[in-house]
Amino acid sequence: MEAKKVAAEKAADFIQDGMIVGLGTGSTAYWAIQRIGARVREGLKIKAIATSQASEELARELGIQQLPFAEIETIDLTIDGADEADPAFHLIKGGGGALLREKIVAAASKKLIIVVDESKVVDKLGRFPLPVEVVPFGHEMTLRKLEQLGCKPVLRTAEGKTFVTDNGNYIADCHFGRIDDPEQLHTVINLIPGTVDNGLFIQMADHIIVGYHDGSVRELEKA
Ligand SMILES: O=C(CO)[C@H](O)[C@H](O)COP(=O)(O)O
Predict the structure, then answer these.
(1) Looking at ligand 1, which residue's alpha carbon is closest to its atom 10?
(2) Which residue's alpha carbon is at the smallest distance from atom 12 of ligand 1?
(3) pLDDT digits over 182-220, tens only?
(4) Which of 55, 84, 148, 154 is deepest in the core (most CB within 10 A)?
(5) pTM exceeds 0.95
(6) pLDDT value of position 1
(7) With a cut of 0.90, is the ipTM above it?
(8) What is the pLDDT of residues 77-109, one digit of tens each?
């Protein structure tokens, strides 16, 4: 049984009738959305908001009713993946390029459940390059400023072209190697003009569900 799938399916069991649910992005969130779709077909009544065009399309195909963000005041529960999670529940997200919408949806959620496989649980963040969303105008300068923070920024490409986010921006993948103070780094990156946001999610997760390759799951609670 796939580790990502068991974690995601476990998280989908937390959803109850009447909830407004945030749908994450990526290959783990995919399994959560599939399971939510199956529960909707069994009669679960929810409304959803997606964190990317890809997840929005998947939810539509599965018959999950979605709301425009303008009609939402609070999201009851969001289920999303992550690229790394540390013991303080700080995360790196944005491997799929959806970090900005994911952060907006997470910030509007009463509860954020993160679903990962065992490889994503780390003692220190930073082995996974930190995605930073930057506006196209002057992005070369923005990347140089990011480099001055001690990382190697690489402009993300896909199929030989510069990757463009759902918001029309670029992604700089910043290789830090090890992040000693995620909170401080989060602040200094976002102070650089041209930066829209970065993939550090500082203590936003309420619950982390880890899937293992033997099919077991472990639920981590915030200290
Ligand atoms: O932040 C994300 C997308 O922007 C994803 O949640 C993150 O990259 C994990 O992806 P996956 O579940 O495919 O490993």
Answers:
(1) 26
(2) 28
(3) 999 999 999 999 999 999 999 999 999 999 999 999 999
(4) 55
(5) yes
(6) 59
(7) yes
(8) 999 999 999 999 999 999 999 999 999 999 999
Point out the ligand 1 atom lying closest to the alpha carbon of residue 27.
13
Buried b (16+ CB within 10 A) or exposed e, 158-195: eeeeeeebbeebbbbbbebeebeebeebbeebeebebb
Beta carbons of 136 and 102 less than 8 angstroms apart: no
Q: Is 13 annotated as a binding residue?
A: no
Q: How far is the CA of 29 from the centre of ligand 1 (A)?
A: 8
Whether 133 is a known active-site residue: answer: no
* Domains and their CATH numbers in the chain: 3-122+202-215 (3.40.50.1360), 130-198 (3.30.70.260)
pLDDT at 222: 77
- Residue 93 assigned as binding residue: yes
Residue nearest to atom 9 of ligand 1 (CA): 82
Report d(CA 146, CA 167) in Å as an integer: 20
